[in-house]
Amino acid sequence: MITADYLLVGQGVAGSVLAWTLDQLGCRVWIVDAPDLPSASGAAAGIVNPLTGRKLVRTWLADDLFPFLHKFYQDVEAKRSASFFHPLPIYRPYRSLAEKADYEAFTAEPVVAKYVNQTVNDKYYSSVVNNPFGGLEVTQSGWVTISKFTSSIRAYFQEKKQFVSAQISTSDLTISQDQVDWNGLSFRKVIFCDGTHGRENSLFDWLPFNVVKGQVLTARVANYPVKNIVNQGVFILPVDDTTIRIGATYSWHDLDWKTSVEGRTFLETKVRDVLKIPYEIIGQSAGIRPATKDRRPFIGTHPGYASVGIFGGFGSKGVSLSPYLAHQFARFLLEGEDLDAEVNIQRCLSL
Question: Which of 89, 118, 192, 223 could form a Cys-Cys staple with 137, CB 3.0–4.6 A?
Answer without folding.
Answer: 89
